[in-house]
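Quick review question:
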């Protein structure tokens, strides 16, 4: 941006002296009355519009060559690259950390090539990293589903402790039942008199431990579940491959657009520099009385308009740099700049039919839909299999122990139930069991059948999604192919236009300096030259962007997220089709 500041200092600083304008008066004609009224109405509208804008100081002829300063913020954002970016040292910010004031301080602008930009994006993209996690999750889900073929073994441990209080009362005793002397009063061991009772507290502690084995010998839902998990993993991997293609295209487009913004700034800088030179010449000719005051005013207006265009192009380049930085997930303090020179890529090497056939073959977007459809069908099979019988083997074994103490025993009415009261009792034992269980769902109100039908419908819908995506791929590829051919043709025409416009500008400038051509011709020729330069630039960028869009549809990419991805910039670098 030092060049722009130099442009702002190139205008001469000596005061201007304006020759008196000689204005002739012509008689008004009746047929121009309507035109004059239109001009008066337009003048009134412009004055009303000016009233909405804060007043500016009146035009000073001494300030015709002075341009207002460009905001320093724009100059800083458009600073030239001072160092080359090292991809190995680019570490993205932590995903859950917001930037701090220190990290937002802009560092030096760092340049990088398109190949480096792609390598950084493949390594640091938050979107790609999220999809890598999705693939890892699907892999773990598949392993979990495969575990259904194995038995489950559980350790069971239990323990408890508690106290209870009991009150016993026998409204009718057992002494009159005739069961012998043990049930007779007063010395029968088991005799309970009528109205006898007792009160006691019991404290008990128990625990047990064992193993439990369950094994599904026959389960028709396992195989569909594993197949569905495997299809979901394939879908996640193909989604990752699709995101690789999309990311390459996004980075390529952002890089080419940054190159376009760089070149647009250069064109606008050159235009403004030329404006200042012509403005100075116009003012010199005006002081010599060779051209009217109108020429200087018009050139000053043109310079202001071209500076407005330059300022906007500076803002566009600053935005383009940030767009590329976001795609590369660069640290906040790094501002990237394009290092590659802008040049058109070669013509797309395949014809339209070859391109379409190659785009359909192994397309990860289409493979994702097929894998999703297969997962839905397998889930339907697994849901329907819930109506089939399930045979399982179970086995369990373990031991237990308990300790019970009885205290605060109080008898009343001759006592009750003393034979069952033991002050301290310890028990232990073990148990085991083996068996088979058969489960067969006979009726569930149509719940399972309707769930299977819903999955089948979703699978049918995915078939239509496949057809829509197939057509979308063709449309994208044909659009890019036709625009690529058009951009190549426009580039040829634009090159011819630039050559002719440049020669015309040189000629008209010489004629203007010699007094053989008017300032209007010079302005029109300059405007045509700028238009042709921008057309050549846009055609060049159009060739590269359409090539990148064609490459996106055919680019082979790995399905494994842990495979190193190498940037490929052209079809020649891709395996033969």
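Suggested answer, residue by residue:
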């Amino acid at each position: 941006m030092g060049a722009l500041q130099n442009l702002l200092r190139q205008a001469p600083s000596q005061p201007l002296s304006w020759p008196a304008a000689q204005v002739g008066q012509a008689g008004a004609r009746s047929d121009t009355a309507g035109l004059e009224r239109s001009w008066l109405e337009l003048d009134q509208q412009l004055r009303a519009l000016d009233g909405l804008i804060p007043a500016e100081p009146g035009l000073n002829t001494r300030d015709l060559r002075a341009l207002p300063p460009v905001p320093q913020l724009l100059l800083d954002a458009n600073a030239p690259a001072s160092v080359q970016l090292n991809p190995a040292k680019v570490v993205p910010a932590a995903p859950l950390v917001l930037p701090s004031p220190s990290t937002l301080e802009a560092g030096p602008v760092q340049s990088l090539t398109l190949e480096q930009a792609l390598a950084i994006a493949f390594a640091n993209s938050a979107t790609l990293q999220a999809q890598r996690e999705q693939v890892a999750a699907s892999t773990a889900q598949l392993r979990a589903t495969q575990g259904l073929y194995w038995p489950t073994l559980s350790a069971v441990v239990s323990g408890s402790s508690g106290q209870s209080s009991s009150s016993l009362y026998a409204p009718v005793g057992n002494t009159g039942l005739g069961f012998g002397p043990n049930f007779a009063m007063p010395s029968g061991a088991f005799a309970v008199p009528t109205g006898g009772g007792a009160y006691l507290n019991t404290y008990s502690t128990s625990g047990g431990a064992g193993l439990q084995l369950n094994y599904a010998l026959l389960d028709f839902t396992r195989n569909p579940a594993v197949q569905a998990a495997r299809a979901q993993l394939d879908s996640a991997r193909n989604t990752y491959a699709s995101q690789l293609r999309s990311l390459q295209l996004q980075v390529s487009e952002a890089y080419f657009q940054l190159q376009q913004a760089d070149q647009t700034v250069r064109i606008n800088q050159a235009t403004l520099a030329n404006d200042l030179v012509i403005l100075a010449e116009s003012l010199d000719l005006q002081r010599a009385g060779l051209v009217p005051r109108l020429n200087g005013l018009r050139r000053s207006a043109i310079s202001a308009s071209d500076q407005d265009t330059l300022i906007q192009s500076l803002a566009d380049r600053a935005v383009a740099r940030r767009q590329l930085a976001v795609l590369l997930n660069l640290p906040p303090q790094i501002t990237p700049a394009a290092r590659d020179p802008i040049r058109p890529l070669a013509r797309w090497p395949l014809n339209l039919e070859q391109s379409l056939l190659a785009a359909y073959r192994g397309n990860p977007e289409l493979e994702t839909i097929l894998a999703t459809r297969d997962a839905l069908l397998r889930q339907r099979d697994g849901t329907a299999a819930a109506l089939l019988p399930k045979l399982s083997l179970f086995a369990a074994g373990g031991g237990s122990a308990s300790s019970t103490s009885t205290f605060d025993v109080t008898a009343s009415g001759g006592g009750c139930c003393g034979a069952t009261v033991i002050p301290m009792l310890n028990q232990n034992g073990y148990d085991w069991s083996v068996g088979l269980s058969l489960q067969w769902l006979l009726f569930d109100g149509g719940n399972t059948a309707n769930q299977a039908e819903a999955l089948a419908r979703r699978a049918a819908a995915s078939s239509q999604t496949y057809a829509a995506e197939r057509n979308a791929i063709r449309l994208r590829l044909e659009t890019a192919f036709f625009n690529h051919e058009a951009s190549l043709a426009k580039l040829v025409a634009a090159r011819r236009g630039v050559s002719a416009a440049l020669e015309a500008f040189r000629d008209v400038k010489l004629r203007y300096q010699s007094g053989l051509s008017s300032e209007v011709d010079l302005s029109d020729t300059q405007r045509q030259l700028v238009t042709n330069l921008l057309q050549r630039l846009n055609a060049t960028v159009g060739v590269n962007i359409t090539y990148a869009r064609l490459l996106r549809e055919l680019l082979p990419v790995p399905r494994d997220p842990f495979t190193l991805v190498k940037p490929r910039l052209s079809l020649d670098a891709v395996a033969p089709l």
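Why it works: The mean pLDDT is 86. The longest strand covers residues 196-218.
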